[in-house]
């Protein structure tokens, strides 16, 4: 409790006392008076309201509005909101060129910049509003790092477009590029599709990375129930933002912090939800990174072991039939959690941002038989999750693949090796590959890229050409949440760290079995040792990034199976910001 007997706030243990209390802080208070605050507002707790608003892409364009609404909720509950913005790099616009190297880096910059703003101004609590692939985990990482009472709110999904009588998303445009190159779509149709796929505000409209991490925010307890359900264009979303602002004040009064909420069991719940929704493989990167902030060891292997025993329940794009909007209409994450809890697949006693447990939040949530977007556990789309991990001689540290909606789970064929995505995309565009090939795209890892680019342009082109079930792709980079087909990412160790993927040669046989969870390079170990010795004699491969943010990232980033993090994490911290 942070209240005095008369009901006023006791700031003696709140960070904002360092800027608002006592005669020595008169200069600090003068700035607040300059911005229109009065003595009452200065005496209240200060709540940072962080938004990833920008005009880079539609996923971010409503975030300022929702941030204002969250600030109103803080005011109504007796707090003093302080709004600020951080960056977002939007994957859809960064895709397929050098800009994608900035995407994963932006996750770290978001977490760092929110941390620095909160630390520098001594705010007491945090509401975070985010709407794109890396901004969601980046914002939640900041919450776990700072460990002040926090509430997260997703900006919302885009509505599906309508083209030639059917619902479409940006995924259809990426795949249309492949169809056009294969002569199956005219340029006129492609240009018409691009003008109808994205009808307004919101994040990409399938169970891609943004919507996957939005589901995580509810499942892990940092966001209010149902807050990820409504599309961004619906003004009713603002009511969830107001409620989130009010909720963070209640959390502050109880001193209920993110690390109290995001326990090991809560991370397990999040992994279950990713698998059950056929979510993005990027969840296998972001959950370990978030856990790292809390001082919890939760690796790719931990994530994938949980996914392996989780049924695939939500019939969502890209592997399923429905856009993200339909999941909200079917009851959203609470409906999914209802059947998972009833089946004993999640921990119901985890506390959440409501101040209640998951089990308590789900009281009154009744299974709906009138919808077929979310299946009950008793009738799954498949008995195991839509995302699986692979280990073997090609990936000793692991790899990950989305199999949701796919029957192509086994493949054995000769390697076709590309050092970088551009060469692979050019070959695909020219159809310069053969059926049964295994396309290996390397030196795209966190360090070697740098930046661990996503490869949606390449995978979508292959799907559009109609042969995604006849080839496999492997990379030490990433594949987008919109990827479908046997596309294996996060192969570790990465090529730049001396991993086996860096020793593969054209024609080597690679065997993949997603059902068994294996990925093997069928090359004699003695030959591999000879290749490694030869590679060690060669000049180290260098990137063009010898200064700037990407250089800094490459110098500090760790391996993908641990989250591609850039600092020692919560387990190594000498102090906690919330206790300054």
Beta percentage is 5-15%
What form results from the Cα inertia axes? globular
The structure class reads: alpha/beta
The main pleated sheet reads as: 8 strands, mixed
Number of alpha- plus pi-helical segments: 22
Look at the structure and give the mean pLDDT. Answer: 95
Distance between the termini: 17 Å
What proportion of the residues is helical, as a percent range?
Answer: 25-40%
Q: Strand order, main sheet: write it out.
A: 7-8-12-11-10-9-13-14
Number-wise, the strands total 14
Task: Report on the architecture of this protein.
Helix content is 37%, strand content 13%. It has 580 residues and is of the alpha/beta class. Strand 3 (125-130), helix 7 and strand 4 (150-154) form a beta-alpha-beta unit. The longest helix has 21 residues, at 101-121.
In brief, what are we looking at here?
By secondary structure, the chain is α/β, with parallel strands linked by helices. It is about 35% helix and about 15% strand. It starts with 16 loop residues before the first helix and ends in a 24-residue tail after the last helix.
Topology summary:
Layout: H1 17-20, H2 26-34, H3 39-43, E1 46-51, H4 63-76, E2 80-85, H5 91-94, H6 101-121, E3 125-130, H7 135-146, E4 150-154, E5 161-163, E6 166-168, H8 170-181, H9 187-194, H10 209-219, H11 237-254, H12 258-261, H13 264-276, H14 283-293, H15 300-308, H16 324-329, H17 332-342, H18 358-361, E7 387-392, E8 395-402, E9 410-419, H19 421-429, E10 438-442, H20 456-464, E11 472-475, E12 487-492, E13 509-513, E14 518-521, H21 525-537, H22 548-556
Parallel strand pairs: 1-2, 1-3, 3-4, 9-10, 10-11, 11-12
Antiparallel strand pairs: 5-6, 7-8, 8-12, 9-13, 13-14
Helix pairs in contact: 4-11, 6-7, 7-10, 7-14, 8-9, 8-20, 10-13, 13-14, 13-15, 19-20
